[in-house]
Each structure stands twice: as C-alpha cells, then as structure tokens.
C-alpha cells in the first residue's frame, strides 16, 4: 500500500507563527505535522544557527550578518517581535530567541518527528558546516530522523562523502531533465522541488511520487493534487490545512 504523503511544517508553521522559532516548531508538531523544515547557518564562532536569511534584518530586532556574529550576542536578538502583525500574536512572542541546531534536536528528541535540516550554503559556504551539522545530529543519535537538504550540490556531496548513510535531498527550483540519473549518481534520497515546477511535472510525480517533497505548498487545491499524486511529502506554511485535507 502506498504510504501517506507526509506533512512537513515550513520553518515551523510559518503561516501562523514566527518562522524558525522554538514556538513555531512546537506549534507545528502540536498541530500534528509529521515533521518540520528549518534552515541552518554558521556563526562567527562556528555555532549552528537556525534562521532563514543570512542577515538578521528581516526577522529579528537587530541588524547584521550571521557569519559576523558570535553566538553569545546572537542569543540576545529577539525573533518573535517582528511578527506582531500575525493574528495569533501575543506578548510571549517577545521571549523567542535564535535557536541553535542542538536545541531544536533536543526539543524533538522524544518524538517521531521528521526533521528536514536545510543547510543554507548557497550564499556563504560556511567552511566545515557539513561536519558540524552531521556531528550535532549524530551525537544525539538522531540521524535516522533527519533529512539534510541544500540548494548547494557540493554541500550534499560533502555530507555523503563524510557519511554514506545520511539521507540527502537536493533542493531545486526546476526539475533536472536527467533527474533519475542524477539521483543515482549522487545517491539522493529525494528531490525537494519548488511548487510551480512540480505542477508542471505532474506526470513525473505520479510515476515517481516517492522521490519528491514539494515546497512551499500553501494552496488547498495544490495540496490535494500532490496528495493524490502520492508525493512523499509536502512542505507547507499551513500544516493544519494540509493535515485536514490529507486525513479527511
Ligand atoms: O526546503 C524548502 C524551502 O524551505 C526552500 O526555500 O527559501 O524557504 O528556504 P526557502
Ligand atoms: Ca528552507
């Protein structure tokens, strides 16, 4: 029997809660999401920082570039306040701080949640990030729960070289023509494919749905299409909506 499409909360539950925060991750899993997706960068003192942008400017109370900051200072930055226009906002969001990777892992150590760790190496390479991320996950015995993804193929190849057993997923805006050969050559577990390209490649999805997690799927109609096509997962800002459709 085909297994159910998994529902993965994008940056937590980005449609309802501040992105890439412990609050957002907790809420996504409370909603029933099968997993969460989040982004990792490296600070100046080589700590693994969970945030989407390279810069602090959009989502935090400070300004600057993550790679120039020490973790001690990054921890003073607030990550909930900028989202005070969201309907679920309340004053406790002021407590949100930049999570480190180990904190997110600890939060879900006792759950079955799938963790999609995106290594954000497409602007800065963050030398050594692959080994650091791998070490942090491996020492907590959580490698079997984690899928590593990246837009940077060299990052994925480095991870795989370091540990051939890790699950890697290639993040792409467009489906490569030779996607099946590439998959074999690099030993991808899956493609993480952008929603518009996925819609243009529904036949490939129907044939090989198991190879694909689709991002970022926020429209009800698209959720239904991908669930029907049997894709492995959809990554969405609204896990509650997707779960309702999948389980109805
Ligand atoms: O992992 C899927 C998606 O998160 C990739 O795009 O920009 O939201 O990190 P972005
Ligand atoms: Ca991401």
TrEMBL record:
Q: Which GO terms describe its biological process?
A: lipid metabolic process
Provide the GP-PDE domain boundaries.
Answer: 5-246
Q: Which domain of life is it from?
A: Bacteria
One annotated GO molecular function is: phosphoric diester hydrolase activity
Could you tell me what this protein is called? Answer: Glycerophosphoryl diester phosphodiesterase
